[in-house]
Amino acid sequence: MSQRALQPTHAAAVDPPPAGPELQAVRLFPQPRELPPFALQQSDGTQLVPGELHGHWTLVFLGFTSCPDVCPTTLAELAQAQKQWEALPEARRPRVLFVSVDPERDTPDRIGEYAAFFHRDTLAATADIPALEEFARSLSLVFMKVPAPDGVPEDQYSIDHSSAMAILDPQARMAGVLQGPLDPEAIAADLRMLTEASRN
Predict the structure, then answer these.
(1) Using CB atoms within 10 A as the burial measure, which of 12, 90, 114, 161 is most buried?
(2) Predicted structure pTM score
(3) How many CB atoms lie within 10 A of CB 166?
(4) Element (H, E) at 126
(5) What is the 3-state secondary structure (H, E, C) of 44-69?
C-alpha cells in the first residue's frame, strides 16, 4: 500500500526569498518565527520540549514506521547527509527529528529503533493526535489518517503526510523549509554552513 506525500499548506512555506548564506537545498524565511509550546515523547521516554533543541539546527520530518516508501527513502537520504556532518562537535551538530504521526501503532521503543536503523543520531518522538496536530500545524505541515480499503484489516490503514521538512534554528524557531527531491550533498553543505554561520 502506497501513501501520498502532501504538499505544504500555504504559499509562504514554498517560495520564501533566500536569506543569509547562499544555500542549495534549504530555503530560509526572511524572519524565523517562534513556535507555540510543545511537548513530544522521545523514544527514551523523556519529553522533547523546545529547550531540548536549542543550540542545534534541526530538520523535522513527519512520518510513520509502517510507511512503505516515502519515510524510509527520506530517512536514508538524510542519513547520508548526517554522515557528512559527524565531524562537527556534538554540541553544535545539526539534528534530524523524526516525528511519528501514528501513535496508535508507533510506540516510543519502535520509533527509536526505526530512526536509529538509519542513523544513530536521529531523534525520534511522538505524542497523542491532538498534540501532533498542533505541532504539525505550527510548522505548516499536515497529516491525515487514510482508512484501510474494504477487505483489508483495519489496522492496515495508511497516513498521508507532508513530504516537506521544517527547519528549526538554534533557538528552536521555524526558520525555513526543505523540500524534495532531496540531495544529501546539498543538505549536508547547507546545514554545515548554517551551523558555522550561527557561531558568528
Answers:
(1) 161
(2) 0.88
(3) 26
(4) strand 123-126
(5) CCCEECHHHHCCCCEEEEEECCCCCC
Q: In which order are the strands placed within the sheet that holds 158-162?
A: 5-6, 158-162, 143-146
Task: List the alpha helices (DSSP H) in 13-144.
Answer: 70-84, 108-118, 129-138
CA distance 108 to 125: 7
Which residue is associated with the grid cell 548554517? Answer: 194
* Residue 47: CB atoms within 10 Å: 12
Please name which of 50, 65, 148 lies closest in space to residue 101, comparing C-alpha atoms: 65
Task: Tell me if 102 sits within 8 A of 64, measured CB to CB.
Answer: yes
- pLDDT tens column, 113-156: 999 999 999 999 999 999 999 999 999 999 999 998 888 888 88
Cell 484489516 -> residue: 153
100 CB neighbour count, 10 Å cutoff: 31
DSSP class of residue 122? -
Q: Which residue has the cell 501520498?
A: 4
Please state whether the peptide bond connecting residue 181 to the residue before it is cis, i.e. omega within 30 degrees of 0: yes
Q: Residue 98 and residue 157: Cα distance in Å, rounded?
A: 20
pLDDT tens, position by position, 25-82: 999 999 999 999 999 999 988 999 999 999 999 999 999 999 988 899 999 999 999 9
